[in-house]
């Protein structure tokens, strides 16, 4: 009787008497009786069932869907926060220590209208290299506000206590300063550390270590803090006695790193003051000379400028071995050495930097001036 129930959906014309049919001979694998009992108990046809409706057909289940919450768009949520305004008295740049505002680019790799702060998120216009402050800055007022936050100078005992707490390698309040130098988003990281700590430890590596004075200046100028300790490439930046985390400055974050613009060529085909043959001779002389310094990737280059100045007292050209330094870092190193030594980079080739000190009479004129 159970087998009759299974095939009751077939039409009466096509049905055959099951008493004369051996079902087991047509089934390759014997079906356990429990399966028939289970299915027949749960899906047994009733007199009201349609004979053309198979008992094992899947029926659509009506599911009660939860009411969808109204969609929240970005514009509806943050309309009251746009555009963001900041009272910081300086132009916003991607890097403050590794860019020179006096050098104007000759081209851009992306349209200047694409602001890294996002469309409509800042009330300053991005010009391709920076977002200038629209209001005029009063230096005296800025200095007064910073002195009010710093408060009275720290005593020697207070400085020693802060240095002992934050100068070690296991300090939890540390920021790594890499080849990008002091970036704009790093300012926000410093203020986040200042919420729960009086000072933050900054470890400098790579190209910025060529000019640590420049790094210290921009840290104090852009954050309003004070450098209370410096050891080679380790700095401690103090927030001030009267620092209030609730009244911290508004720092809009850059959503992506902008493409570096195109600047004038650093190495000329013919160096200033030399002919083409003399320039070629200087380059060959530099490549055949032993390297003065071997620079490593993300190393500490604090003493490089002093060593090059000392070498130029007896040599016309010097070579720096930068085999393991990235090409972009080599160009940044050449730009910094050109301004700090000063000197003239005459060759960048396979990780080798050749520097020329310039003509002797030019050096004498600079000393006399």
From TrEMBL:
GO term, biological process aspect, one: mRNA processing
Domain of life per record: Eukaryota
Region (Disordered): 44-82
Domain (CRM) ranges: 152-250, 272-368
SUPFAM superfamilies reported in the protein's UniProt record: YhbY-like
Matches recorded under InterPro entries: CAF1P_plant, RNA-binding_CRM, YhbY-like_sf
Name of the protein described by the UniProt record: CRM domain-containing protein
UniProt source species: Protea cynaroides
Taxonomic path: Eukaryota, Viridiplantae, Streptophyta, Embryophyta, Tracheophyta
């Amino acid at each position: 009787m159970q087998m009759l129930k299974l095939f009751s959906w077939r039409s009466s014309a096509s049905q055959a008497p099951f008493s004369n049919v051996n079902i087991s001979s047509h089934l390759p694998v014997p079906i356990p009786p429990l399966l028939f009992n289970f299915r027949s108990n749960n899906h047994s046809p009733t007199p009201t069932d349609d004979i053309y409706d198979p008992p094992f057909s899947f029926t659509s289940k009506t599911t009660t869907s939860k009411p969808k919450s109204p969609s929240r768009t970005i514009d509806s949520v943050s309309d009251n926060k746009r555009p963001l305004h900041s009272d910081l008295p300086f132009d916003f740049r991607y890097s403050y220590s590794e860019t020179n505002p006096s050098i104007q680019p000759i081209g851009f790799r992306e349209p200047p209208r694409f602001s890294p702060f996002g469309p409509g998120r800042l009330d300053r216009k991005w010009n391709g290299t920076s977002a200038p402050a629209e209001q005029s800055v009063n230096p005296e007022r800025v200095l007064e506000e910073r002195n009010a936050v710093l408060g009275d100078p720290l005593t020697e005992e207070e400085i020693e206590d802060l240095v002992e707490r934050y100068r070690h390698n296991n300090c939890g309040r540390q920021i790594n300063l890499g080849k990008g130098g002091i970036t704009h988003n790093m300012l926000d990281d410093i203020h986040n550390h200042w919420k729960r700590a009086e000072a933050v430890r900054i470890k400098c590596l790579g190209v910025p270590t060529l000019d640590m004075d420049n790094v210290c200046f921009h840290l104090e100028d852009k954050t309003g803090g004070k450098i209370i300790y410096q050891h080679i490439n380790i700095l401690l930046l103090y927030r001030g006695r009267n620092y209030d985390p609730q009244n911290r400055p508004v720092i809009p974050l850059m959503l992506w790193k902008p493409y570096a613009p195109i600047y004038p060529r650093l190495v000329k085909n013919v160096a200033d003051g030399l002919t083409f043959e003399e320039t070629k001779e200087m380059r060959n002389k530099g490549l055949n000379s032993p390297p003065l310094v071997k620079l490593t990737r993300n190393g500490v280059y604090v003493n490089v400028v002093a060593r090059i100045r000392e070498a130029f007292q007896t040599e016309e050209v010097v070579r720096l071995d930068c085999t393991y330094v990235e090409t972009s870092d080599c160009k940044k190193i050449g730009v910094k050495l050109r301004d700090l030594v000063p000197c003239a980079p005459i060759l960048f080739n396979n990780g080798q930097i050749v520097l020329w000190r310039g003509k002797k009479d030019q050096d004498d004129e600079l000393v006399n001036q």
